[in-house]
Amino acid sequence: MKKTILTSTLIVLVSAAFAQKQPKMNTFQDLIIKPSAAQLPSNNDKTVGVTLWSDNFSNASNWVIDNSGQSGIDFGWNINSASNGWWSTAGITSTSGGGNAELVNGVPASANQALNVVYTMTTATPIDIAALGGTNQVSIMFQQFGARFNDLQQIQISTDGVNFTTVGDNLDKSVLSQSGGAAYPNPDTKMINLATILPANPAPIYIRFSWTTNYPGSATNPNVWITYGWYIDDVKLVTNATNDISVTGSSWGTAGLPYYQIPVTQVAPIDFEVKAFNGGVNTQSNVVYNINVNGGQFTGSSVPATILSLDTTTLTVSTPFTPLTTPGTYTVVNTITADSVDDITANNAISNVAFSVTNYLYARDNGTPAGSTSNGTDGFESGNLFDIWVDQQIKAINTRLLGGTSGTVVGTEIFSKLYSVDPTTGDFVFESESDPYLVTAADLNTALVMPLNTPVNMLANTTYLAVIGSYATGLKVANAGASEPQTSFFLDMLDNTWYYQTATPIVRLNFDPVIGVNEINGVISSSVYPNPATTELTIELTTQELENASLFLLDLSGKIVRNQTATVSGTSSTTMDISSLSAGVYVLKITTDKGSITKKVVKK
């Protein structure tokens, strides 16, 4: 069953305009300012049927371009055989002859991108599918190249040349930035099946390629109008394949939640399912979804299905897979089989799934950082749901903070929190949190362990929400992978409202039993005064037994600027001279054999 959280105080996010509640809106600093790497052509351009109409851009007058009032080769669509944009020197790799279309919007290094524009390129005359011998069983097919940043690249059709319907886009492509992502294959063949959109006897249609920003709510921000560019070539209308099963969605996980790292104590059965669409002309029989784990360690299949033309069926592997309760890695290979030979194998390929069973870590993210979650000038919390299947105590939450010029600001004060989920209302109920922690340079782009003040005995058959947050600005929680709606969440402190987010923040449960919670498991507590201080800090420590403590004062770069030791039994105090230090914020780290705690210190 899919995980769904419903509550009267929970707002479901449906707009992509809020960058802080969706995968991060990318800034100029995120760009990879270098020519695109040479790439091999993809091999998925197959003959799927009869080509009813085609255009290779040898005649620019076949298209009507609207560049939103902009002029010059650096703005809007242009049709020629050259690469005119700033990003790719070679342009699209295509072999049909003629020219190609290219979309450009200024040069980021010059900060001259046009704002509030919609660039369109539309066929000059309508294409009469019926007169060409076709029916609604047709697809648009074209080659493209480029990379996605904050772009909204759409493919649209119209019967009157005025009112256009979007039939496809490139939002399934990863964002290319310093954090990761990739350019499109060169060329990338895209196919859009129109059979479910057009009537049986379709009227003539116009085809349009449209570009604008994916963040219209931030239209005054120049960063949202940056583009690497978008190349189009060899546009066709082709009759649909005779046999064509395509996978339109896939999911895996336990109770609807996929875990890429599973502690041995929380191993549970994992379900696998896909949505299969029959985009071909013929009915497809004996369609089966198969999985193979670690080369035959486990195999499973769905119940065979018959799928009528233009119908979609959900295929679920009949027997869930349960990993061993020992650490190990698993790779799941997915395939679709049917009685008929599929004419287009590229659109029924399903990516392999890779995950691991660990000693202590429980992770929803896929481990490959890409982008981050932030909230502009407002505080926020961001994290993921976790289902608990066996009672277990937790002492810490792990995270990863984005580094780099557009990453987390060193000196930002952050915290971790754990909530349980009320099974009746779906509300998040506070359980525990960490002490505030001051981010140092050494904390960026690495695993950061955030101990909780009080351990929590997590209960079986209960769902929890683990988050990382900050009341201040400057926090950028790294993301890795995508989440189904209402399984990863974001608290906007400006309106004190929970939203869901579709990027998966790197926020993990850590069940390592040797982690010392803050205040070193109650054995040592501390206070620091005065704070702010001018010349000297007094550090008061309280212990239940004799302890040897190491005291480190670090600047925000992580450099140790003062260090000394203290022997503590009961309550005692020691002083630290800070008179020669520069004014600013520092971190005092107190360490014993049982763990460590940190305190924020301000030097006036």
Keywords for this entry:
604 residues; mainly beta; Jelly Rolls; Immunoglobulin-like; 4 domains; 8-stranded mixed beta sheet; 6-stranded antiparallel beta sheet; 0% helix
Structural class estimated from helices and strands: mainly beta
Whole-Å distance between the termini?
56 Å
Determine the strand fraction and express it as a percent band. Answer: 35-45%
Task: Provide the gyration radius in Å.
Answer: 28 Å
Mean model confidence by pLDDT: 88
The CATH C-level class name of the largest domain: Mainly Beta
What would you call the shape? Answer: globular
CATH topology of the largest domain: Jelly Rolls
The tally of beta strands, per DSSP, is: 42
What is the total domain count?
A: 4
Question: Counting H and I runs of at least 4 residues, what is the number of helices?
Answer: 0
The largest pleated sheet is described as:
8 strands, mixed
CATH architecture of the largest domain: Sandwich
Runs with pLDDT <50, length 5+? 4-23, 38-47
Helix fraction, binned, reads under 10%
Please describe the topology of this protein.
Elements: E1 10-11, E2 51-55, E3 63-66, E4 75-80, E5 100-105, E6 119-123, E7 138-146, E8 151-158, E9 165-169, E10 188-193, E11 206-213, E12 230-239, E13 245-253, E14 261-263, E15 271-278, E16 284-293, E17 298-301, E18 305-307, E19 312-316, E20 328-337, E21 353-358, E22 361-362, E23 372-373, E24 380-388, E25 392-400, E26 413-421, E27 428-433, E28 437-438, E29 447-458, E30 462-470, E31 477-482, E32 488-492, E33 497-500, E34 503-505, E35 507-510, E36 524-529, E37 536-543, E38 547-554, E39 560-568, E40 571-577, E41 584-592, E42 595-603
Parallel strand pairs: 1-33, 14-21
Antiparallel strand pairs: 2-12, 3-6, 4-5, 5-12, 6-11, 7-10, 7-12, 8-9, 8-11, 13-15, 15-19, 16-17, 16-18, 16-20, 20-21, 22-35, 23-31, 24-30, 24-32, 25-29, 25-35, 26-27, 26-28, 26-30, 31-34, 32-33, 36-37, 37-40, 38-39, 38-41, 41-42
